[in-house]
Every structure is written in structure tokens, then in C-alpha cells.
Design goal:
alpha+beta, about 750 residues, 28 helices, metal-binding, nucleotide-binding, single chain, seven-stranded mixed beta sheet
Length: about 750
Amino acid sequence: MVHRYYANLLLTGATAGALLGGGLLWLGGQPAPARWLWLGASACVFLLTLVDIVRAMARGQAGVDLLALFSIGGALALGEYLTAGVIALMLGSGRTLEDYAERRAGREMSALLEKVPRHANRYQGQAIVQVALAAVEPGDRLLVRTGETVPVDGSLLSEQAVLDAATLTGESLPVDCRAGQRLQSGCVNAGAPFDMLATHAAEDSALSAIVRLVQSARESRAPAMRLADRYALLFVPLALALAGAAWAWSGDPVRALAVVVVATPCPLILAVPVAIVGAMSRCASHGVLIKHGGAIEKLARAETLFFDKTGTLTGGRARLVAVAGAPGADGEAVLRLAASLDQMSDHAVARAVVQAARERNLELLLPSAVSEQAGSGICGMIDGRRVRVGSLDYAAGQEPYPPWVERLARRGGQEGSGDVYVAVDGRLIGALQMADEIRLDTPRALRLLRLAGIRRSVMLTGDRREVAETIGGVLGVDEVLAEQTPAAKLAAIAASAERGVTLMVGDGVNDAPALAAADVGIAMGARGAAAAAEAAQVVLLVDRLDRLAFALRIAQRARAIALQSVTLGLGLSMAAMVVAALGYLPPLAGALLQEGIDVAAILNALRVLGLERQPLKARLSEARVRQLREEHAAMLPVLEQITRLADRAAELPAEQLLAGLLRLLAALRQEILPHERHDDAELYPQVARLIGGDDPMATMSHTHREIYKSVQGLERLAAALEAPELASPALPELQRALYALDTILRLHFAQEEELYHNLAE
């Protein structure tokens, strides 16, 4: 690419120099040397163009430079050396401009390759030694200095770090990381030096995989020309036929030459690749890597989108959503025991339980005599009691299931959650409801994709039908295909592809066949499997589905601009061809006119590089968003208290029910209501200024009022329970009110977190 750019630049300069020198000789009364100078420059360009066309045809490409070759050859054959020189300059300058546009458009893709580290700073005893990146192994302790790139994937050992992931993911703001957090290679240290633990070798790290994808994308240029080739296949025969007709009608071969000169399809040769490469560049700057230009064309025409559920629409990681205790059991005590034991396990669910306990600042105990049964659970001694955590059969052993377990199992099946049961000395004391949470950006992403032209969205998953339909209903996808094997996914996509352009988004190894079968496969590449990324044509370097909507908009507008450039250029060229065929446009004037048409078409195509470049708006910092999420996490025990009381309301004696309700009301007044008042008074005005508009937070504030009303309703029901004659009629209403409050609070928290997440992007 670089060598070609400088070679074309040198050739263009030499041709321009020859034209200028020849002009000076002509004006100085030396026409013969001038003609030889023009002839030499034109002949060089003719031979180089001939070689390029032969090579293109050997690769099976159309060779859209053919008319330019005929123009120069015809001018030389007819002795129109100045005309041949002008055409040669036009062709050379056009190629140089194309190379310049590609170099400018590819800067974002090249920037990542330039950031690849070559060395790492490894601790060896008390010394820090610089070693080759290939020498880094999992388990090495590394130092990342200020301004250096994280060399391999790992975890943070220092208390905190500030990372700039702009080159990798397009995120404009630095990200604060805390001890133990996963670090992705390719991010730049924007703060103080920090220590990290390598968890992957260099060749297995995310940066290496992304670099391989970028190199593949840069080397794959041919599909970007398909749109141009389709037009060239029609335009070239038309131009030659018109030139032949003009020659036959007038008997003047110069008139045929004039037609061919103005027919040189530089708008096709240049404008389409410039627009396509520009779109790839704009997408790369936002963390969307498109491997070749053919995918841009297909993205622009896509109407059907398939999603894999786990890791794509959902986070792919377990998260605690509720703690259910047996009658008389304390939810926090259940979680504390489970997390204390799960410290000894490396299972993903166990890590999620431990994380949830730490978010609530629970003090964990150290278990002993721990044994783990793969796929079932873990057992150990805590404070002299035998604790078992895992599946229902594993935790309960031979004991019959109590009634509260059956209710919990039914609710878990309806809500799509999985339960982890906790037993102490053989007696079930509670359960932890775990769920694969929907990504915060997923609802917004689906809305943006619909606006971008996706008419049909289908969720593919291997989950049970009731679980899949619950999640699909929450997200609002058009169709849910549950209990799907990789072969079934493949068949569904193949059937859809027969009806129109189909996209498939996935991240797992089992998604690779489906990604390859779709018209455009899209891999969640930041955490997705390497097989999925290799099979896909588009890779989302940052795990945000809304970036796909951005790519669709860019692809659609880039294709429209490319077609506009082609229509404009070819329309003007065809009009000039008719004028030349009638004898009113000589070859030299036609060459100059064609040069102007080329510049206009290319400048129009370059508009792609400016698509959706909006000034940076004020945003919430990552630290502020994390603080808001932690505030919500701190209030989750209150939500669990609501659910637990609603589940047990029918079986509790009136005195215990009233006592539980009064405790709940006290927690609501002390934690939930002050939080909502603070949001209304201080946080929402700040957010409103970021969003803009007259009253963008009106709906959220209305939800606050509904929460206040629900709490007031519970206070009235508490008063009714204190009157024995009213207690029985109030019980069904109390259960409905508790479930309604739990639903509105969880929905409100989810809406707030989605909003804050989007403002921090």
C-alpha cells in the first residue's frame, strides 16, 4: 500500500513535469522535443496500466481501467501526444488521490497495529526485566508504566488503574479499574504505573486476535470493487459502441477518441472504493471491524437479524437477582454462608455469589474440609456446621422438599432464573436466584436496529422454551427459536437467507457455523470465542450491540454516497460522450473535462469520512456510573425483603405478617424513599442537562411518584392489619401491592442503569 502510493505519486509528478516541460518547449518554438517528452510520459503510463489490467484479468477481475488504456493508446496512435499526456496525468492523479483517500480512511485501522507492544516489563525476584512479548507466560507479574500498552490479557494487582481504550474500542473516556478486575490487552495506561497478573500468553490474548483480524481486513480489498465492476460491465461496452458509431458516422477516428477519453470511468475506478474504505474506517473508529468492503454492501441491505442469546443479548455471566429464605431464615445469613463456601470454588456461578456478597459488604468466613462435586455443588464446614451449596438434589440430599422450595422452583421457571440452594446440617435454609442478565445496552440497541431498517429480529438459544420466551418477551424480539442445536441454528439462517440479506450475531464456538452461513456474520469479539471471530465478516471489538446499529447506518449512507458519486460521474460522462460524438468536444478538452468530473466524484465520496462525527457531549464519568450501580446494589436486600414477605404472606400468622410489614416499611423509608428523593432533587437535573430537551426525565420522575404511592398504600394496609376484623380482606390486596412494588422498583432500577450506561458510552 505504502510503496504503491509513493510509486503513483512519483509517476504523477513525472507526468505533470513532462507536460509542463513539453509546454515550455512548445512555447519556445521547439515542437519536436515537446512531442517526444509527451510521448515518453504517456507511453510509460500506458505500459504500466497495461500490466495492471493484465494482472487484474488474470485474477478474474473486470479491469475497469480498460477505457483509460484505449484512450491513451488511441491518442498515441493518432499523434495526439498532448491529449495522451493529459489523459495519463488524469489517470495517475486519480490513482494517487485514491491511494491518499485509502491512507486517510485506514488510519483508524492502522492505529491499532501501531500500538502493538513488542516487550513487557516482568518481575524477576526484586528486579524488573524487559522481556520479549512472546516470553510472557500466564502467572507472570508485569509492570505497566504510564503511557504503555497492556501487553497481554490479565487481572489488575494494584489497587486501581486508569485505562484508555479509545484505539481498541472507540471509547472516548478513560476507564477506572479496581484490583482483581480483568484487563484486556491493547488498552493504554492513562494513569499511574500499575502491576498486573498475566492470565494469557501473548498469542492467546485479545489484542493478538484483533490484530490478526485487522491485518486480514486490510489485505481483503477486492470485494469493495464489486459495485464498481457491475456498472463497468455495462458502461465499457456502451462507451466503445458509441465511439465506434461516431467513427462510422463521421469517418473521423479523432471523434471516436474524444468519446473514449470522456468515457474513462474514473468515478467507478475511484469513487466507489473511496466510499467503501471510508465506511470501514468510520466503523473501525467506533470499535466495529469490517473485514472487507463486500460486507458493507450487504449491511446496507440487511432486513433480518438473528441473535444468539447468551453472551449477545445477555451478558453471559451469572448474577444474583434475589435471595429466598426458608420461614424464619435471614436472607443475608443465607448469602453469607453460601459465599463463604463458594470462595473455594472457581465455578462461574460461585464467583458471582462471592461478588454479590462483597457488593453488600458481608464479612465472609473461612470454611474447612471442603469438597466439590463437579456439576452439582460444594460442601464444607463453617463454624462447626456442615454447609452444602449447589443444585436442589445435591443440597437437600434425601430430605423431602419443603413447600417454599416448590413455590420458588415454579417462579424460577417462569422468570428464566436458575436457583442455587443452601443447606445447613441437612436442612434447606434458603436459595439464591441467579440469572444471566440482559445487557444494559440491549434494549436500546434493538430500538436503534429497528430504526436502522431491521424488519425482523429472531433470538436463537439452546435454553428451555419457557425461559427463552420470557427473555424474548422482555426484549421485544419478533421471534424466539428455543432449544436450538448448532445444526438447527444453521438451518434457520439458511432458510432466511433465501428470502433476503440475513445477519447473524453470536460469540460462542457453537455459533461459528451459523456466522459463516449468514450473509454477514457478526461476532462479539471482545470476549467472544476466536472461532466465532474468524468465521464472521464483522467483529464488534467492544461488547456493545448498539455499535452494530451505528455500522448499519454508516453502511447505508456510504452505499448511498457511492451510488450518488457513480450516478453523478457517469451521468456527466455520458452527456460529454454525446457531445464528443457530435464533434463539439475535442479530445484534449474532453480530457480536461473528465478530470473535473473525477475530482467531483471523489470529493463527494470522501464525505463518508465525515459521517456521524458529532461534537463530544458532556457525559457521566465511569466512576459516577459505578457509584450509581453500587447504590442500587446496596438496596437489593430491601427488594428481596419485599419478595420474601409477598411469598410467605398467606402462611404467616397475622402478628408475624404485621411485624414483617412494619420492618419492610421502615427499610423503605430509610433506604428507598431517600434515594428516590435525592435522584429527583440532584441527579435527574444533571442527567437532564446531558440529554437536552424540555423535560427528558419526566417519565422517570413519574415512576418515583408511583413508588411513593405504593409505599403509602402499604402503610394503609399495615393499618388495616392492625384491625383484626380487616386483616383477612386486606391479605390478597397486600400480596398484590407487594409484588407490584417489587416489579416497579426492579424495572425502575433497570431503566436507570440503562440510561446511565448509555450516557457513559
